[in-house]
Protein 1
Amino acid sequence: MVKKREGYRPFAPAVLQERLNEYFEAPAEITDFPFMIFTLPVRAAERSNLGAVTHIDGSARVQSVSRATNPRFHDLISAFGRLTGVPILLNTSFNNHCEPIVETVDDAVAAFLTTAIDRLVVGDFLVEKSGARLPDSGILDLRVDVPPAYRVTQQTGRTGHPQFTLEFACSGLLARKTTPISSLAFRILVDTNPSNTLGVRCNELGITAATQVRAAIEEFHALWSERVVCLRPRG
């Protein structure tokens, strides 16, 4: 739903440290696995309860959680254990399939709004979606620009017609990613003023017909979901 993982790449179990050995075969000399960097065999009797975090070979990338180092997460797993009998939660890095791990609250909210995540917890706040997606008026009121790693390009295709893309511009070992965009999106993105909202840009360019505005909203919501454009609140 969010990470777009292949079936052979399960997620990681976060387990109460004091109950680690009930579910995993850990070496006697090591009792702490806080960083999800080691795999341990899942005890055969528990594999049916831990299908979402067990690899095909019966191992799991374990994270042990102690009350001393992470009391809030420890309390959460404990509460889940009381409800279900299994003191383990599925854990993974917070990002969608095409972006790095979130670093800020803004990153977390953007990931929340553009994926199928049901609820977001930030500190003491629980956030729920008011609807299926951000309303059109909200999208039009967001500032739009291109991330630093991307550039807007225009080329002539084989048919002689112009082709517009967003191109991942970083050099190095990463594969170059090219995302096709419409001529309408191209006109909006070549604006050099990052303080302009999507609605302001549409008005400046004479994009006022309901069908055109709807097309802009749909395209920029899709591009935002793929993290090839930025949509941010004003201010």
Protein 2
Amino acid sequence: MGKLKITFLGTGTSQGIPLINCDCPVCISDDPKNKRLRTSITIQNGQTTILVDTTPDLRQQLLRNPVKKIDAVLFTHSHADHIFGIDDLRRFNFIYKKRLEVFANEETLNRLNYLFDYAFGDGELLPGLPNLHANRIKGKFKINNLKIEPLDLFHGGQSVLGFRIERFAYCTDVNKIPEKTFPNLKNLDILVLDALRETPHPTHFSLEEAIEQAEKIGAKITYFIHMSHKIDHNKHSANLPENMYFAFDGLQIEV
């Protein structure tokens, strides 16, 4: 199947880093690894490109990290920082003259259809709008040559999805991994996992919790994402276990 190329379009929490009107050491830092757009990735293999989530920063992200096309969009859940860039998908409709395939669980699709009812359908393309075709995730599925395995996770009380492709798994916005999901996280080369801050949070793993979960999963390499301004890239990197790292905007890895 060939290697997967993962590009981290954004690695920050819902407010982005720097925060508006914040003069904390991370927000005023000159380190580019402390500048974080909202969390999203692209996954590429050969001629296939998958976008995971459409953040409010999507236009900026794709100008920084261009892709020729998008074959499908996967949504992890329906919070604003993961969906509110959806209108910027219309550029790909304009270029390729077809609807873009969107995949999500039932709860997320219902929310997307409520908020962006103008974007979904099966008929001819409507100019000036995103033109999307909804696909409900019920189990494993394929996008071209890529086999996608949904991973059931919890983000506070909300059921959300992570995704596994071959030996790569992506788990953002999570504070609990159900026991039934751990078998689906075995034998990973790369794990990407939520790690918001050092102190506990009701809907995200703290750094300590993320490290504990990463050790339990046992991937060869783990990258942490969705960091707040309470995480300083260099300072906190010094205390990470071996083979665990903070991702940063623009980072590209191969699996």
Protein 3
Amino acid sequence: MPAELDARLASVRERIARAAARAGRRPEDITLVGVSKRQPAEAVAALVAAGLAHCGENFVQEAREKIPRVAALLGAGARAPRWHFIGRLQSNKAKLAAELFDVVEVVDRPELARALDAHAAAAGRTLDVLLQVNVSGEAQKGGAAPDELEALARAVAALPRLRLTGLMTIPAAAERPEDVRPAFARLRELRDGLCRDAGGLTLPQLSMGMSADFEVAIEEGATIVRVGTALFGARGGMA
């Protein structure tokens, strides 16, 4: 199984490199986050040992069990991955999120940001955070509306234990990767406008694109891509 995982990691990296070349970008400027929700810790540890440096989890309770298990499997002295939280986050789970994760990509309201800031301070940590934007306007999805973004960015930037680094989105599902391109372009435009209008913010990160469409996202400026199935296979198994 490790050989199969190694091959998947190499394939995804090659696809990232080709997409970056098409966009005139450097592949090393794009961070691959392996989405490890519902995947066994053994598979995560194998990919980290093979060079995966960032992992993403959607559920705080699952991550509470998995993160120390991955560390134990890697062994003392091994370089741990940076852990990204990429699922819906309730304010009552902010304490655990602030203790477990290095990056929280889903800040979409001031009260969540304030809770993360307070719990990060209590834990003696500083968190990198991204603002999740609901570019498609789907009611069932998390994310701030575009017209709320500037006020949210200003509020988060003022919190001492949060380091605001960029924007994230999960666009509406589409049959073809090309159909998602406008959503990715919209997030880039929102980021550029925010940097221009919101008091000199620097927001280098754009987290967008998953297994089915990350190449299009890279062509539109993604600096973080969140890839699960293409790395691990089907959730809950290694198919």
Protein 4
Amino acid sequence: MRVVGMIGLGLLGHALASRLLAAGHAVVGYDVRPEQGDALARLGGKAGASVEDVAGRAEAVCVVLPTLASVEDVILGDAGVAAHARPGATVIQMSTISPALTARLAREVTAHGHGFLDCPVSGTSAMVARGDGLIIAGGEPALVERWRPLLEAMLPRVVHVGPAGHATFVKLVANLLVGVHSLAAAEALTMARRAGLDLARVLEILTSGPAGSRMLEVRGPMIAREDFPPQMKLELFMKDLHLIQEAAQSVGAPIPLTDASERLYAAALRAGHGGEDLSVVVRALEDAGTATRP
């Protein structure tokens, strides 16, 4: 049994913590929202009083936060993990951030005498809760292998792709497809709805044939029901889209489909849907279709 810290107990952090607890690990977590710590305690974990408290009690500290600024502050700030972690502890950065920030965090955490792993998660919070998805791992091979049993307790599939920063880049590539495929699902089902088709039957056909995708399976039912409980909040996914565009620009890769989809996701955000799942982009498609119909 390991004592694992979890900084950030939102949808994904809570799902990861639940997996660790189910595997028999002790989890101490912290979130700026006290009710999230209470939810962890109800699962059998412990709510820490602060980042410093968690860092001082855990052998490995997982960071699952929504913004680059919050990740940097929690890891490198004066009250952060690097300054207060136990000797020999490892920081496991699991948020979606930029490859450049990931590489800098690795350098500075290592300079403090701690280990650092770049381990973003590919999969929605609901997928993670049932053990689906995977962890993309970046860092020193020996350190990845040391912590592999813990990572596999969170998700059974752990793929090491190279040094710190590489896993984050792969995560951005994966999220590019999440964005485009989710929008494609919304576009296809909007077309089917306009034709008066039975969407449940259409989904059955599409998901069982060559046109299927994981995002159609995950988000198609929400689009059909017109109900968008957040598995990935739109307001957070917009950050990912901007990171994808920056990363593509840094390597000179054209991403016209992502650029087009970003405009529709942004329209849904402006319409007030930021707290809903990103599949709510179908609302922007519906609005666009209404505006262009005779």
